[in-house]
Amino acid sequence: MHTSYILRRLLQIIPLFLAVMVLVFVLVHLIPGDPVSAILGDRATPERVARANRQLGLDKPLIVQFGLFVNQLLHGNLGESINLKVPVLRLMLDRLPITLFLDVYAAVLGVLMAVPLAVLAAVRRNTWVDGVIRAVFQVGLSLPVFYVGLQLLTLLGARLGWFPIGGYGVTFGDHLYHLFLPALTLGLNLAAVLVRTLRNSVIEVLTAEYVDFARAKGLRSRVIMTRHVLRNALIATVTLLGLNIGGLIGGAVITETVFAIPGVGKLMVDAIFGRDYPVVQGLTLTFAVLVSLVFLATDLIHARLDPRAELS
Amino acid sequence: MKRLTRAALALAATLSLGQALGVTRGGQMVYGRYADSQFLDPVLNDSNLDIWILTNLYDTLLQPTADGKRVQPGLASRYVVSKDGLTMTLTLRPNIKFADGSPITSADVKWNLDRARNPDNGAWNNLIESIASVAASGNTVTITLKHPDPVLPSALAAFNTAIMPQKLFDAAPGKNDAEKAKAFAEKPIGSGPFVLSEWKRGSYMVLKRNPYYWKKGEDGKALPYLDTLRFEILPDDNTRILKLQAGELQGAEFIPLSRVAELKANPKLNMMLFPSTQVNQIAMNTRPKLKDGTANPLTDVRVRQALNYAVNRPALIQLVTFGNGKPMKSLMSSATPLFDKGQKGYTYDLDKAKALLAAAGFKNGFDVTTMATSGSANDLTLTTALQQMWGAVGVRLKIEQIDSATKVARRTAGDFQMNTGGWTDDLADPSEVTGYFATKGETDAAHTGFSDPTIEKLFPQSQREIDKTKRAAIYKQIQTIYSNAAPIIFLYETPYPVALAKNVKGFYQIPLGYNVFEKTSIEK
User: Which residues cross the membrane (chain A) (predicted)?
Assistant: First the structure.
């Protein structure tokens, strides 16, 4: 299935990767403040700062540092965290799965909430049911993620004690249990985006001639809905979902902080504040690749659902 | 019958006495930290995140007392300083062991001290730069000094002179000290009350009791009381508090001062405010010209005094610390040794402030800018309150919110006018805070550019004066000169807020910030 297309898209990631690499390197080094003074903080004497810079190789010209960075990358080495003194790759391998787990979980919950409700809203359009569903998700969309998260934590975690507060557990079942509230928080936000689009496309499709035709043929409405309406209405939604999952990967920062989930989002923020160049660089590059892959997957699914879409 | 009663009474008395002495052993304490440690090497570490818990893993020759003001015996049961102050002889306790069961020798001590004072290692070597050489023989360690050093005992009670096993360190993979330290610090072996058993970075750290720890508990058996100490990393303040309220934690640090009153009212918790050496101040750039070449009104001492008089400290303490602070009266906290109780500090006096400004030629006030840490609610409350207070004397304060790495960079470059900041001592001695704030030293008086010839003369003297009374007199003088010169806005002292479950006993944080878990127990 479109092997050459997929291959081409994968190859396109390489120039993107290079561009991101240069951009990130330059940007990170351009912001004022450096890791050494961020670490040494209040007590940094110029002498100590100079010594630490020398030890970390930060006293070399930028272009030399860039050369070293590229050279490292070519050897499959993302460098070592300046603040934590651990290889970046290891930090990432430790934490990326947690973030990915959370994001997939959130996407699943989001879709599970969005699809039936959007269909219900579309079928009952302009009734009170439609009104309530739209109003609830409109509010959900405008509430900040940290607020929703905290409310869920306070109610379902602290007051009712149904879910643990923070952490992510050890086993797969544990993960599902621990990450339920944060995934729900992110999922609600995602569902709010999806419900709107999906509802509109369902309405659009419902009024299409081929649906009338299907009805005339005497097909049951459930069959019409799943086989004809949803399949067509989902096309726009899949694209939207893909875009949002790309965003989730980097956007889990707040949720990860509130729920104390040691994912890459939190790692990234700490690294930026600590000017931990190798970590920022490594994570950004990984994000770029991941997001490209998600977009590729989105396009493929899109093509699957809509044979008219040309993969070229 | 009578005899029986007496026996019963005696039995009851014995039991209740036993209960009074008895302390529950075993169990696990889960403690919520706001951020994870970074690097568990005593010499090469850099931040309070490491320093404040390192003492649970590593032991020092001497130790700070619980009030943070003096030192007491540690791995060394005693020390003697020669009359001329140039030699210190320490005697190690007999039969002390590292957490792996191997003996702690004087050779280990020599190696650690040499490593800690090597200028190529880390940022803290200057704490013991007075050491000329270290000799080890039997259970005795002899330190020869370049000059008498009254600070040395405190330095030998600080994290960076902690004792590690040389053999294990040398056996760690790596080409040089820094590489070996990285490998060793992944799974460090020290001789502190606990030993690291598991560490999932950014998530949790598990410490197990060190079975070879030398200190004894109330019941005459070896400390610590806890079997396991688990640190959970919970950066969000609300999450830490919720987990504590839900009983998932038995302790949580860095409780926002805004929530202290609420947690004090919770019958399931003990809201602790441990005395600290923490001071909060605003450093002023005292140089005549700013980085951009414009004239700097803060170069005039009268202006700096005026700004200090125009601060309503009690109001600030209510606003920012919710009543949990007290006015800062000297460059050092009142918990720092040799703090001069006679210091008056600045009172709130608008008339005096106006008169001083007029005398300095700023009758109509002036514009001034302060850096504040972006995202810090405290900094924002503080600076907006100051905006109003100083507005009353015509000084218009502009607030620049900047992330902390940039702030540090600009401060180091002298590219600022005012800068919010805080400080905590690492040593049970006033020299660290004084060297940082009051002398040109290497940091240009906390980057303010302030310099006073008398202090520059007095400070080096204080570093060699072993007569306690004389040293106290010197520090009194330094504090007075510094207060008058006012290169900082003196704000307030704040405690360390830690919330504990009611059944947690024996945990404390000393004024230097160290978290002490060796005598912590969880009562049934």
Answer: 12-31, 98-123, 135-156, 176-195, 229-259, 279-298
